[in-house]
Amino acid sequence: MLTQQLATAARDKYGATRVEIADAHIDQQDASGLPVINSRFTSYFANHTTRVTLVSLTLYQGNFIRLTLTCPPERADALAASLPAVRQALLDTLRKQAAHPATHG
Length: 105
Prior knowledge:
The protein is an alpha+beta fold. It has 2 helices and 4 strands; from the N terminus they run αββββα. Strands 1-2-3-4 form a 4-stranded antiparallel β-sheet, with helices on both faces. β1 and β2 (36-45) form a beta hairpin. It starts with a helix and ends in a 6-residue tail after the last helix.
């Protein structure tokens, strides 16, 4: 699973001493009707800092769209609450670009 891969990278690549996967769930669909997987894990570091990573994965026109945010724990809930709006803004931009492709000439 993607969350496990990112958690392993936090430990192996970024030096986390401990990583806890706190939450992973599948929302059957968001406001756009697209399936969404949301997950969260916490990384603890030797210098006594802690970081929460939020991951939101969806599928759009056969492409995976992943939003990954890493922040201090005290900001995690507010950022998690903002993820649906950020995802929707990104998907709206992709739809507009598909409807009006840039011309090069």
